[in-house]
Amino acid sequence: MLTSRNVIVGFVALAMVAGCAHQKRSVKREKEPGQAEELSGNWSAVDAKETSEAIIKDCFSQGWLDAFAKEAGRKPQIRVRNIVNKTDEHIDAQVFIKNLEKAMVNSGKVSVLAQEGAELNSVRDEQKMATSGESEGDNVSVGNQKLGDFAVAVRMTSILDQVEGKKTKFYKINAELLNTTTGEKVWIGDHEIQKTIEQAGASW
């Protein structure tokens, strides 16, 4: 049997559901890459691709690259080191690193070396097999791993500004190219991304 109390509770529940159904969130980027829709406004694959391409384009347009090629007579060998994440989000560094490596390899201007950890361990495992006497062929030699002429170091930071129903997220990515022999910084660059996220009918 329905009571007046049950009816009132039912109306309240329906009103809450209707209110939630009309909440909308939109993300507006300061610079539209025209690639993919974003839902949360957090760091995304779109940001990683845009940033890596912008950073590498700027880095490879500077004088250090020609200077090295003239002095050494070859392409520089570069290794990407871990990314320091000082944002308020958990960001998969490997997604960003792979975008950086892809942009460098596709440029054809440098040689990209395997990362420390799983990648170099895989190389070392192949070399161990080559010297174990358990495998055929002589296509793998030991003692010829290349060392990086330069290392890429990246630091990511973010600033969040928000009011009820609206927030702005600002990302700043700083990148440096370090000479591994002298420790000299031969290039410093950065990239910025700003997003405005609006969510109608609700606070954060």
How would you describe what is shown here?
The chain is built from five helices and six strands, in the order H-E-H-H-E-H-E-H-E-E-E. By secondary structure, it is α/β, with parallel strands linked by helices. It has a six-stranded mixed β-sheet. Helix 2 packs across helix 4. The radius of gyration is 25 Å and the shape is globular.
Question: Could you provide a short overview of the structure?
Answer:
By secondary structure, the chain is α/β, with parallel strands linked by helices. Helix content is 36%, strand content 30%.
Based on secondary structure, the structural category is: alpha/beta
Alpha carbon gap, first and last residue: 39 Å
Q: Provide the CATH topology.
A: Rossmann fold
- Please tell me how large the radius of gyration is: 25 Å
Order of helices and strands: HEHHEHEHEEE
User: What would CATH call the architecture?
Assistant: 3-Layer(aba) Sandwich
What is the CATH class? Alpha Beta
Number of domains: 1
Beta content comes to 25-35%
Helix run count: 5
Largest sheet geometry: 6 strands, mixed
- Structural shape: globular
* Count of individual beta strands: 6
Question: Averaged pLDDT, please?
Answer: 80
Low-confidence stretches: 7-23
What fraction, in percent, of the residue positions are helical? Answer: 25-40%
| Strand arrangement, major sheet | 1-6-5-4-2-3
